[in-house]
Amino acid sequence: MNNDSKPTINSGIQTKYTFFCHHCESISKVYVENWVKNNEGPYKIELIQHEGNAAIIVGEININKKPDGELVKFHYCGDCGQMIQPPVDADYITIMGCYNPFTSKN
Ligand SMILES: [Zn+2]
Predict the structure, then answer these.
(1) What is the whole-number distance in angstroms between the Cα of residue 65 and the centre of ligand 1?
(2) Domain-by-domain residue ranges, the chain?
(3) Are 19 and 87 in contact (CB under 8 A)?
(4) How far, in Å, is the centroid of ligand 1 from the Cα of 52?
(5) From CA 24, how far away is CA 97, in angstroms rounded?
(6) Over residues 30-35, mean pLDDT
């Protein structure tokens, strides 16, 4: 039996991390600007989506060759455009039950 129906994302890097936007209060699309310190712009943008709680890099936009220097990453919510926190461990969110979009705020 070969039930291998899931498409393989060749360039996708499976992570165990989750990006959470506190503005939208949701886990959604994220884009990550990759900068090198003291440069004028990002050299690469990573596009991230979530499968369950796991962040997956679904695409990369290469702008320039990576310059030498210290890498700095900025994470932005793909929905509201706000800068968001660095990713948290997906297991941590699962264990803590932090992610519940239906939680009442009262
Ligand atoms: Zn957001």
Answers:
(1) 29
(2) 17-94
(3) yes
(4) 17
(5) 17
(6) 94
DSSP annotation string for 5-71 = -SPP-TT--B-SEE--BTTTTB---EEEEEEETT-SS-SEEEEEEEETTEEEEEEEEE-SPPPSS-E
In the predicted model, what is the mean pLDDT of residues 20-40? 91
Ligand 1 centroid, distance to 99 Cα (angstroms):
14
Which of 24, 17, 22, 34 is CA-nearest to residue 85? 22
Cβ atoms of 56 and 74 closer than 8 Å? no
pLDDT in tens, 43-73: 999 999 998 888 889 999 999 999 999 999 9
